TrEMBL record:
Transmembrane segments annotated in the record for this chain: 50-70, 82-102, 114-136
Pfam families membership: DUF2231
InterPro entries named among the record's database cross-references: DUF2231_TM (IPR019251), UCP029509 (IPR016923)
Keyword entries, A-Z: Membrane, Transmembrane, Transmembrane helix
Protein name: DUF2231 domain-containing protein
Domain (DUF2231): residue spans on this chain: 14-132
Amino acid sequence: MAATIDSAYPRTLHPVHAALLAFSVPLFLGAALSDFAYLSSYQVQWTNFASWLMAGGLVFCGFALLWAIVDLLRADRRGKRALLLVLLLLATWVLGFINALIHSRDAWGSMPAGLILSAIVAGLILLATWIGFATFRADRTR
């Protein structure tokens, strides 16, 4: 009789994928806070900060999205949570790109749509990071 032994260690998120997700959070959150600071002070430099932070967030989110797609296509990582992570990261990247296009206008022209989109993108990346870190830890048994 053959005995199968399940690993005592849960499957975890790869450290590079975790870092890509973790770097995206403060960049998109910083962009939202910079937009809020512009709305409060009307100092044009805050929109410049938001644009640069958004560009950095898009880079890290894009690489995290690619990693999540590859992870989804692997046979041992398929599941609802992996698909949800890909969809959340895709929505974050697309809305972040649209937000970057809105921020390419002058400072006054990017408000209030820029602030609203920045808040939505920040919320999406927080949710995606939460799902990403909980994805493989939660399913301990097969």
